[in-house]
């Protein structure tokens, strides 16, 4: 009977296997968008500018295994740190489960379809551009508000 309860409903984040943890990612790509922080207020703003390693069609990292070497500031989420990242989108499964909320109906673990996140309009597909296309001094012009 317990085996029929999905792992994300019967385990705490810290109890999940690495494979279970990774499967929580819905593939939206929102965490790969660059964020700007207001030095005076500490407020964080998302931009439409994606890390150069994000495939903006699949919304997956093209060099996931080497991402920390290639992008030293890349965020590594863990059960212990997920609560520190208030900039994570409301729909992020890591944030959702950490806050005790259920997964969205379009989440691939529920739908069985890895493209359901895109079909629901919850990914950055068609909404993001590579950071390589905009000089860093112009990033403020690319702030968006649809992520959160």
UniProtKB/TrEMBL annotation:
NCBIfam families from the xrefs?
PRK05170.1-5, PRK05170.2-5
One of the Pfam families matching this protein, by short name: CxxCxxCC
Domain of life of the source: Bacteria
Query: What residue range is the signal peptide?
Result: none
Designated name of the protein: UPF0260 protein C7H09_17565
Write out the similarity annotation. Belongs to the UPF0260 family.
